[in-house]
Fold each of these.
Amino acid sequence: MSESVDIQVPPGQPGGPVALWLNRLTLALAVIGGLGTLGIMAIINADVVGRGVFGTPVPATAEIVSAAIVAIVFLQLPQATAAGRNVRSDMLLTRLSRGDGRAGHLMNTLHHAAGTLMLGILLYYIAPGILDSIEGNETVGLYGIFTMPRWPFVVCVLAGCALTLAQYAMLTIGFGMQTFGRRADA
């Protein structure tokens, strides 16, 4: 028996091919982030076993894990945003959504518009530093023992930030359409 994965448009998000592809891309990044989490677990376990059994730790474990954690957070942030799993007051939104729901949709519109603005500001200020990191051949690890390029981690941050911005913008449009009387999937 085979199950197909159904990528649905989250509530409040407008439908259409742009939203569908955005959701597929954010799901792919979330999967990569999940694989990164498994990688971190493997490195930490190898370090613990190496220390305990062989008396030799895995070199630069702390540095690799600290860089990877930041990348994983940004890889999974767009999917969390699209699914409505970011921090917010559900109690307030539930109360505002009573009746025709326009007050709740307005609050969601304002919340997501603020998120769009904040992610835009973040992207504006971090993108040049990330590009400098890539061009400068920065590394992560311990010099002379183990180093690896830093650019894969910062590219993950840049991609996650850009896709989170896109998710916030799509959700702002969707909730705005619901607030002002249009259906988001129209």
Amino acid sequence: MRVVIQRVKSSQVTVAGQVIGKIGRGLNLLVGISSSDTETELDWMARKCLELRLFPDSESGNGRFDQSVQEIGGELLVVSQFTLYGDCRKGRRPSFDQAAAPVIAEQLYEQFVAKLRGSGLKVKTGKFGAMMEVAIENDGPVTMLLEREAT
């Protein structure tokens, strides 16, 4: 499982000209599911996304990453992105052999979103399999790549 995690001031996803998900301060998560992912990877990734300290403590003013999205009461925008498993090492066209089949990926993606919602934070999503436009107002910018291979 791969997630590009971005600290944002705001973020929104649009499908067919209509905004379907919009958040304020928090995290934008671009999520790729591999063919070998299981609930174990989902659990680890959800916990990591919720607990990773990517926000400065406003009281200390030192700019260090001291607080998680949970600690600041932030919001999450979760967007499926199978292209995170694009292999560009050969030829000119990416191979997506490592990405999970859509029917499996959608089920795991929905489980991942449910785990994040269990935190009590506001969680918005894109539309699985749709052509989406994602507008991101990066904060920092702070962008991390999280990866968890099936064990």
Amino acid sequence: MITHRPTTHRPIRLVARAAFAAFALLLSAAAPSVAAEPTAAGLWQRTDNGKPGGKPVVWVLMLDRGNNMYEGVVAKSFPQAGQPNLTTCDECEDDRKNQPILGISLIRDMKRKGRVYENGNILDPRNGDVWKAMLTVSPDGQTLTLRGYLMTPALGQDEDWFRLPDSAVSQLDPEIVAKFMPEQAATQAAQAGKPVAAPGTAGKAKAPPPAHKGGAMAPAR
């Protein structure tokens, strides 16, 4: 009598398929979490006491410049009692010299690595100093921690900024919106039935009160 050995190929194939399906499911589950990771792009507020309920000092608009590079510009500033206003960066020594504070490139060269942004720098408009800096976005995307430092991050200090709602864009100078947020400018113009404000003159003719001396945009020493 001839007997046949049971084949083992089918069970092996089934196990392999199950393993592949489980791996594919794991990848599909991980992808949304990466895509949903919060970004530094958007409008942030610095307050006088470093807390959400403090008085506003400056609004900074963080821009995605592509290739994981980010820049921050002064979108609005608020006068502080007893302190003089600073209208232009007279002490700047680079391409920002004598530029209006409103719209000035405050944060540069931030390279994104997840929720952390490294190897960047921040300008102190009061004296033209440029500090090394890094940024960290909180897991919920509502707090941006700036760390300004001299040589290494270990020798720096942290400062928290707070995300503003999309509705805050309506409080910005139209020229700032037109220059840095053209899509929002077009939407606002369409809703109001008005032409889009021409960029390029923000901070020169009718800028809101600029950042102040003593203040507040540079990291604490």
Amino acid sequence: MLDRDGFRPNVGIILLNQKNQVFWGKRIRTHSWQFPQGGIDRGETPEQAMFRELHEEVGLLPEHVAIVARTRDWLRYEVPDRYIRRDARGHYRGQKQIWFLLRLTGGDWNLNLRATSHPEFDAWRWNDYWVPLEMVVEFKRGVYEMALHELSRYLPRQESRNRYLRGNARPRPLMTETHDGMPQHMPMPIHLELPPGASFDPDPQHPLGR
């Protein structure tokens, strides 16, 4: 579903924990990190699409979050031709997004990257609000900066600072859970570099997850 200018309606989600840190997800089998986002289906409102994408991508239900704010208008980014299917070139230009700022009212244990059979992320972490934009695919960075700035007014004053972190810290050991719910160390593949505190969720169909 495209508008007359070739932009697909979409929602973006900035999810806060109680420390005003944001959910930061690593695209499955890539080195790109991003916020949850997804398209608005025909007949859906942006809020309905947000709740659907929230569950599909991170496993949360409406009772696990509270809506803090949303952007006033659409924020747009264009997608380079190399990322567009050949049959869509000339028609599809990119995304126009409504961004939501949510507060997690549930717990970390409610997060589930494998809520569907088509996961978007294979790792996640809580990050300071001003996320490291160099880890976001380049053509999305402008929209991320606009969304973060517009919604930062709804954060406590001491958190609303314009500073972008650099992801140059060494990763800590990763943790997972056993069947009895107790945490255990899980080896991280040598080709996968995660920032401190990130949680890796392997694909069960991928050799690493077997």
